Amino acid sequence: MQTDLPGTFFSAPPGFGWLVILYIFIGGLAGGALLLAGLLRLMGTAEDRPYIRIASYIAFAGAVISGIVLIIDLAAPLRFWHMVIQNHTGLPMLKWWSPMSDGVWILLLFGFFSLVASLEALAVDDHPRFRALRFLARPPLVMFGAIGGMVFGLALAGYTGVLLALTNRPLWADSSWLGLLFLLSGVSTSMAALLLFAHWRRVDSPSSNDWLARFDTVALVLELLAMICFLISLGGAVRALLNAWGVVLVVGVIVGGILVPLVLQRRPSHGVVLPAVLVLAGGFMLRMVIILSSEQIHVSGVQVLR
Amino acid sequence: MGTRALPIVSQSAAQTAAQPQSSGKQEPMGFFTDTSICIGCKACEVACKEWNQLPARGDGGAHLEMSGQSYDNTLRLSGDTWRHVKFVEQFPEPYEGRWLMMSDVCKHCVQAPCLEVCPTGAIIRTEFDTVVIQSDTCNGCRDCIGACPFGVIDINHVSNTAQKCTLCYDRISVGLEPACSKACPTDSIQFGPISELRQRAAARVVQLREQGESRAHLYGADPQGPLGGLNSFFLLMDAPEVYGLPREPKMPSRNLVRGSLLSTFGAIVMAGVGALTLRASRMRDVARGPREDTSRAD
Q1: In 3D, which of B110, B149, B252, B139 has the Cα closest to residue A97?
Q2: Distance CA B232, CA B108 (A)
Q3: Same-domain pairing of B132 and B258
Q4: pTM: predicted TM-score of the whole model, two decimal places
Q5: Residue A79 sits in which domain range?
Q6: Structure confidence by residue, pLDDT tens digits, A97-123
Q7: Which of A125, A226, B73, B202 is deepest in the core (most CB within 10 A)?
């Protein structure tokens, strides 16, 4: 008779699957990208323009994909608008104490700021169709767009972990560290994605690459510390990871996605592609392990006794 | 079990208590489920499905699903099973053991986790202090499923919305008793005003303990307990976990402040580290002197 199970093991899995994993991964990556774009807008030089442009496009594409994925994932997708407008009254729908409600508004505002950032990048780079939008490059608007983008980018990267913590599911609700862990992972994956896209587009600014490598090192070290805190805070619920998912977490996420990239970054001869791909793969596997290892647990009274 | 010695809920009393008043909040209503007299007949399951027009498991025809691991073929509450009689089969030896039966249902928590997290406002508290999902508002985001500590809610694949017991809101609003308690042949499921049910449940525990059932206890009857008490509470004959119930169900919001603060702290740190490393990088560039732009921008 297993009467020592943590209380979260008696809830039912909500059926979060690959679409939710994809959203949490892309949302974190896109949020981090707008943070990078904002920092470079406020403090960068002309050398950073290609990076600002690529980061802005990544953020906007991520916002669009996130919205589509979230709508498809609903059991009644045509009612997606019930998240923002009360269907009975027509008034705005916001429950600040519900992270899912907050997340809808965060994603909407993030989409706005990533669109503005992308349009500004197109206008500044003298794209013929967007010259009329050059007013977006005026300092007050750049400041507003950069700060707004950074705030909602970081919020998008972190709120998903808080959303999972505000359930009663194993692992998710057994720790308060998931939001921080996802945020740090989102920022590190965004840097990996930016370096990869810059490499693909043959943009090579040593100064920008140097900054991204240094920033990424700090992000990966902090992510490793947050991971350790998360695992310790789980207490008895860590038994949910004493299986194949735990192996994936250790080998794929901690070793492959954090430690190996940290070592490779110390040796520039390996280039940017391998560490960036490993960071992206580790970030995706982190979401996969957290979601699916909890989803597989469904205890009923009968099963407890067997 | 001697239940006749106790005052049994009279249907007329329950109906009187549930009669809608002219306006405003009614007296809190709920269920008291006495598992010591449940015989596992599943009449409550059938009555619930009939009244609420819920489909059977499987295709509802010749291919009904069998669990293959228990005499219980329902196994759990779901979007189309709002009452479930659990069969807890305790047989450590082949010829020695006991059965525990428990008719499980939504607990209609006084502080409801599902209601707390619902992002569309689909989940509401009624004038009877029960918790109901408005099917025309729910969009199936499934946040409430993970939030419920009891695993009660699920998606109904006919409506594609989250669904669960409504405590027969349509029946009690017109003074009728819920279908399950009406059908229960042993009065294991009793419906009525919560205050009255609590008194009856306490007396039943005393009676069982006097008969030597030392493990008999109430689950969810204490208004000072977890979730502010449950409007659908139980008399259990073993530990809650044996019935698949958490010992101390909690609100999802217990992680709200700490989780948000940690994330906010992390966000500030990342923005600060990003700015500091970028500034340091640019100062190194200045110290190195002007450099030819190596960008081969697209």
Answers
A1: B252
A2: 6
A3: no
A4: 0.90
A5: 7-304
A6: 999 999 999 999 999 999 999 999 988
A7: A226
